[in-house]
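Q: What does the assembly look like in three dimensions?
Context provided by user:
Components: two
Sequences:
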Amino acid sequence: DQQVKQNSPSLSVQEGRISILNCDYTNSMFDYFLWYKKYPAEGPTFLISISSIKDKNEDGRFTVFLNKSAKHLSLHIVPSQPGDSAVYFCAASAGPLRVFGAGTILRVKS
Amino acid sequence: KAGVTQTPRYLIKTRGQQVTLSCSPISGHRSVSWYQQTPGQGLQFLFEYFSETQRNKGNFPGRFSGRQFSNSRSEMNVSTLELGDSALYLCASSLVPLAKNIQYFGAGTRLSVL
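A: Here is the predicted structure of the complete assembly.
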């Protein structure tokens, strides 16, 4: 039972354009959401998070949107840069439970 | 300050053997979690330790076990290895147990079971 789903295994975007990565969840108890980025041969690194009391959080080029009624969150990267090419994982938390999605490979073409 | 350190980085074992992986968390972090990453499955939660006690456990068979020492370092053991155990094993540390805390990951141990 996948409680957190990233339905797009990969995404290809032109440099300078917007990248939108999506994540859906099923457990309405999740109240905290995170995005991590992973380069090959490295561990995931924290990117941005959002609490369920908010619907948007920004940090520089990265913005996370949360739609609780649709149980959907998305990560927007504007403008996309070649260095953003990596695997992106979304994660959802409820108390001690934290569930990760399967990841989306983002390729930013120059 | 040093990050999360996992050793070894690579391991090759044969079916039926056992293996022990090590994780040293960031200094001051008392919570350590372990994850298994396989293609298409993302990060599957194995267990979380805090103050030498297992707080939470994922849906893995009893062949997967772990422990945490008084200095917060943690080890994970897999006994009677199977081919399907081949994966990247990631360790993550945080100041206190999960909930709304950010985890910091190590680079992982790549285990290949032949």
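Follow-up: Chain B has a mean pLDDT of 93.
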